[in-house]
Predict the structure.
Amino acid sequence: MLPDDLKKALRFYFITDDDAPALTPVEQVSIALKAGATMIQYRNKSMTPHFLEEIITIKSMCKTNNVPFLMNDDIILAKAVQADGVHVGQADESPDIGRQILGPEAIIGISISTLDELDKTNLLSCDYIGTGPVFPTGTKDDAKSVIGLSGLKALIEKVSIPVVAIGGINGKNAKSCMEAGAAGVSVISAVSRSDNPLESASGIATACGCPVRASLESHWSDEFDLIDKLLLPAREYYDENTPIKIPPGDDTALFSTINNPIITTDTQREGVHFSFDWQTPEEVGCKAVESTLSDLAASYAEPISLFINLALPSDISEKKVEAIYSGVHKALKRHQCLLGGGNISRASQLSLDLFAVGNGMDNFFPARSGAKPGDGLYCTGPIGLARAGLLSLQKKDSQFKKLIEKFKSPIARFDASKVLARNRVTCVIDMSDGLAGDAKHIAKASEVSIEFDLNPDDFDSDLVSFCNKYNINPNEFMLAGGEDYELLFACNPSIFKEIKSVFPSAIQVGRCLPFKKSLLLNLPSGISSFQHGK
Ligand code: TZP
Ligand code: MG
């Protein structure tokens, strides 16, 4: 987590109370989150394996609401339940062991009450310090002496990592801790044992500058209810002129006759094809559709309908699924493609399996096998941009907006596909794997050898600036980068002239020769095609 994000997450740090008279830990967390709590710690001083379900429930409530979830004391348990981190005391295993076991991304907190304890602690593996009791507390039997606001200030002055105040904190005194320089406050009984826990939690949230959550995001639960919601925006597109006669809602979709049905499928898995670390749910939905429809564009097919099987983890919020679908509808609308139906199932990992139906041309289908010796090899636009965009996101470099946009929001090239079709180009493939990989498919199917010819005058200027900044050869990205979703095609150079006059961004990237020994003649060593998940 970035330092600024961690500081924000520490503002209102609620810790569960296993011994509260009226509220269960799940109820406490629900109230704290509703009020605006920014971090949750599961603390249970009478821990037994029976509490595992409670831990998992609280962890998933946190995940749904995008709030870090930490375990108290027990590093192994934190690892086992895949918590976002652990908070250890002076008597527990060290933060160094926590870091070794939980890895570099984990949030690790340590309790330090005195300057003496501070001297004895190696802070290198710690992300934050919890210090107190700042005020008298009845919650911790073995609490150290009260350190007061002066003790809090003294510690804050001595360290460079964020400090969270703990002990006897409530809505009335929380502000004084923040004014003393604390990054936030940790609270137990002011919420867990309050007569009016929501009011009390809201008072703390306000004092620490945390916005109240408008509504607690809930997990999706009812499959049919969710399907109805997801399909709602699609309904307005069906009428007597659309090719789907029976829209989603029945067991199947009934189509009017399609002369040349062309069908394709694609999969998008979280962690393999997309990540919410750098894509919004809308962008994920939109890109999933665009990358599937891109296959239709490469087949000169007009998009007709799309079907989606959604695999949803149980802790994903309904709001997030709806946001993914708003991206789906955006892309479908752009290409006037109808949602034909789909399915939802529970799964450990979020993924979308998409199936698209298109209508191809009469007696003309561009195939990978359609290249001939003497043809040039061309792209409908610049390539390598998406890979550079992904690297920009991974490096948290926001300078190259165009590259990032190309990675996050590609658009299937139906516009270019129409021009290639008009010019009767017989060999087309959409570029999802990078030039080296996609050219190899063409060479193999067409039984030709391909010689690459990348002209630096054609290189995209943003890609060149990016590569200069990071000392990368742009050829590498063009050959091995994936997900550009441009169309790669082979045709006679005279036909390319025509195409280039309509699409000046089209470029030559190589030529096709009679097959001799290898499919790709001059691929630099060490370059291979883009593989998702690597
Ligand atoms: N560590 C120092 S004081 C304390 C802990 C765990 C208890 C804080 O509880 P409360 O009810 O917020 O005073
Ligand atoms: Mg402890």
In short: The longest strand covers residues 302-312. The radius of gyration is 29 Å.
